[in-house]
Amino acid sequence: MTKTFLGIRFWNSSTDKLLESADSEGGLFTVPSAPSLAQMRHDPHLMESYQASDFAVGDGGYVALVLRLCFGRNLPRISGLQILQRLVGEKKQRAIPFHDRNILWVVPTPAEKERIDYYLEDQGFPRHTRHWYQAPFYKNAEDFNDEALAAKVQEVKPDWIILCIAGGKQEKLGLFLRKGFSMEHGAGSEENPDALPSQLQPPSSPRPNGPVILCTGGAIAFLTGGQANIPTWADRMYLGWLFRVFQSPKTFLPRYWNAGYEFPMLLWDKRKNLFQ
């Protein structure tokens, strides 16, 4: 059910099957877009994080369009917003009984925590299933070895960990956690053990890869009101980026402009093994 592109195994089936599989297996779940893939060109740590993903989906019409027009390849687009709508949206539309899951939310600010908590309360999520960790500012590579977060995971023993921090950082943090669970399950313990979290223990769930570590960044803000809401039709027509640009042009316009150049250059750099 996957297609390999740039060394990343992308999901190639429906959103519901994706979430059901992730919920039963656990592991690192990333949502690469054109800007983050472009960033990968100069960031080996980010490339490692994406290529180590147990689940990955293409969140970007630009990526899907380039693959279709230039290479004749189809890669299903599943956005981070779409994933969250199927997890924490209206109960009747949820792909899995997510309200029964123990969830650790990793947030950048107290204000973001309050918005998400208010939204979850309104959606009927039990308070005892909601847990929080405010992430510090990760600047250097060693900062992602966040032992305080590892301790929080050990305390909460979540089914899902949802990382709501910036793209390009959340994936590295997710890789740190994923390596820890690999070590606990007997895989990867000999690969740079000093970089692995010392406090992670086997999760309480039966998932073979530990809890799901979902990297959807700021997408939750489109549901909570932290950012302007993206209509469903716009998201499906690959126009979510345009709504982001209209709301915050100084933030998003340079990001998408840079991706317009760097992503094709990445494809050129990797042209000999794009689909291996």
Automatic annotation (TrEMBL):
UniProt region (Disordered), positions on chain: 186-208
Name this polypeptide is given: WecB/TagA/CpsF family glycosyltransferase
Record InterPro entries: WecG_TagA_CpsF
Species the sequence originates in: Luteolibacter pohnpeiensis
Domain of life: Bacteria
Keywords associated with the record: Glycosyltransferase, Transferase
GO molecular function: hexosyltransferase activity
Keyword Transmembrane helix: no
